[in-house]
Design a protein that fits this description.
Layout: H1 3-17, H2 21-33, H3 41-57, H4 61-74, H5 79-91, H6 95-108, H7 113-131
C-alpha cells in the first residue's frame, strides 16, 4: 500500500472509531475508488467492509450489502464481511441466507463467537417463523 493509501485508511478508521461517519465514508470511498492501487486486497476489503458498516448504521441495508459483497469478492478469506452481511440478512428475515453467511464465517474462523451465537439465533428464529406459518 502506498503511503497515501495507508494514511487514508488510517484516517478513515480514526473517523469511524470517533463516529464521524460522513468523514469516514468519504475517505473510505476515496480509497475504494483507487481500486487495486488502494493497496492489498485485504486493505481494499477492509475499506469496503467498513464503508458497509457506515451504511448499516444508517439503515441503508441494500447499500451495505453491496459493500459487504464487494469486500467478499475482493478477499474471500476475510470473515468479517460475511458476518456483517449475515447480520443484515438476519434483520431482513432472510434466515437461510444469513445462516449460510454465519456458517462461512465459522468455516473461516471457528473461534468467531458472535457468528456462532448469531447462527444459533437465526436457526431458532427460523424455526419460530415456521411454527407461526410465515
Amino acid at each position: 500500500m502506498s503511503g497515501e493509501a495507508a494514511e487514508l485508511l488510517s484516517a478513515a478508521q480514526a473517523h469511524l472509531s470517533a463516529r464521524r461517519l460522513s468523514a469516514a465514508e468519504e475517505l473510505y470511498s476515496r480509497l475504494i475508488d483507487r481500486g487495486p492501487a488502494a493497496g492489498t486486497g485485504r486493505d481494499l476489503a477492509t475499506a469496503l467492509n467498513n464503508r458497509g458498516q457506515i451504511k448499516y448504521f444508517r439503515v441503508e441495508f441494500a447499500a451495505a450489502m453491496e459493500d459487504y459483497t464487494a469486500a467478499i469478492q475482493c478477499q474471500p478469506g476475510f470473515e468479517v464481511p460475511y458476518y456483517n452481511r449475515g447480520l443484515v440478512l438476519y434483520r431482513l428475515g432472510c434466515f437461510d441466507e444469513a445462516m449460510k453467511d454465519f456458517r462461512k464465517v465459522l468455516e473461516l474462523n471457528p473461534q468467531f463467537e458472535d457468528a456462532a451465537l448469531s447462527l444459533k439465533q437465526a436457526i431458532l428464529d427460523k424455526e419460530e417463523k415456521q411454527k407461526r406459518g410465515y
